[in-house]
Design a protein that fits this description.
- The protein is an alpha/beta fold.
- The chain folds into two domains: about 130 residues, 3-Layer(aba) Sandwich (Rossmann fold); about 170 residues, Glycogen Phosphorylase B (Rossmann fold).
- The protein has a six-stranded parallel beta sheet, with helices on both faces.
- Helix 7 packs across helix 10 and helix 8 crosses helix 13.
- About 40% of the residues are buried.
Length: about 325
């Protein structure tokens, strides 16, 4: 199975792996992922071998071909490509075996949505789309139950005790980010100890949020590994996050999570009782496949009108 990136999309493969293992308990199931995202899959019980793709060592077309040919020595019976982009396509081709590949969306949406000629509504959830090509292996969608693994040592490394709330203000693209000052005001309204998680490159940006919240807040961005972040999230009273990796980590460790959506379609996922959707269903949204650098309409109402007071009211009701 191939899913090279990113954290959330990788974790979303775990229901597929569980169903595949259930259907073929004696099969060897290997998983190919980019080396910098290995923590998203390390320890998943339905994988025999986690294979890492070191992007820096296999650059360009020739590098991908070379990596794929090396991988072909294992003589796989089938390749399940859940990445479905140029890298995975080239690698899979070198294995010279049967390839089952998922389809992200109707082709015309990939053209018309970026041109702002239509809003974006998904054909189905990501997990259901992941399952679709596996029908040829007699494997079918069962549920959207995610899994994220961490060790007891990861929890010990966190060294945060008592009741606390986790905020995850980061996201890959700007328009997927709730306003930083809103996270700050929400943290002030919560009136509980708050821990902020994120990447090292986000630490300085999150310092402003910490200053708004005050002394009850710790900015741990860049100070925890992905596994340690998962361990921390598993012990939180709840998590407030954008549509990003921490959302899926929270789901993978069975934590209560409040997830904020703006320009992207929340129907990409199913939601259980542990997940609360925070979304302004405006006429102009969802407007983007993955988020953008700025609001195409210029007003950013989908996020600005979802005020901290509204979010706190939802949290209080849950």
């Amino acid at each position: 199975m191939i899913r090279l990136s990113s954290i959330g999309d990788i974790i979303l493969t775990t229901p597929v792996l569980e169903a595949l293992r259930s259907r073929y308990p004696d099969a060897q199931i290997d998983f190919l992922v980019m080396d910098r995202f290995k923590d998203a899959m390390q320890g998943v019980p339905w994988i025999d071998n986690l294979i890492l793709f070191p992007k820096a060592s296999y650059k360009g077309l020739h590098g991908l071909i070379r990596f794929g040919k090396q991988l072909s020595q294992t003589h796989y019976d089938v390749v399940i490509d859940l990445h479905a982009k140029i890298r995975s396509i080239i690698i899979a081709r070198q294995l010279k075996t049967r390839v089952l590949r998922y389809r992200k969306r109707a082709w015309w949406k990939s053209i018309l949505v970026p041109l702002r000629l239509t809003t974006y509504h998904v054909d189905d959830t990501i997990v259901r789309n992941y399952f679709r090509p596996l029908s040829k292996l007699d494997v079918y969608y069962t549920r959207e139950k995610l899994y994220f693994h961490f060790e007891p040592s990861d929890l010990e490394a966190v060294q945060i005790t008592g009741d606390f709330v986790v905020l995850a203000p980061g996201a890959a693209n700007q328009t997927k980010k709730w306003l930083p000052e809103y996270f700050g005001r929400l943290g002030h309204l919560i009136q509980k100890p708050v821990v902020i998680v994120g990447g090292k490159e986000e630490f300085e940006a999150f310092e402003e949020i910490r200053r708004i919240i005050g002394s009850s807040c710790k900015n741990m961005a860049g100070k925890l590994s992905l596994k340690e972040s998962g361990a921390l999230i598993s012990r939180a009273q709840y998590v407030v996050t954008n549509d990003s990796g921490p959302f899926h980590i929270a789901r993978g460790v069975n934590s209560k999570v409040f997830v904020i959506f703006g320009p992207t379609d929340p129907k990409m996922f199913t939601y259980d009782d542990n997940t609360v959707l925070l979304y302004n269903d405006l006429d102009c949204s969802p407007c983007s496949l993955h988020g953008d650098e700025k609001c195409p309409q210029g007003h950013f109402r989908c996020m600005k009108e979802l005020t901290p007071e509204k979010v706190f009211a939802k949290i209080s009701e849950a």
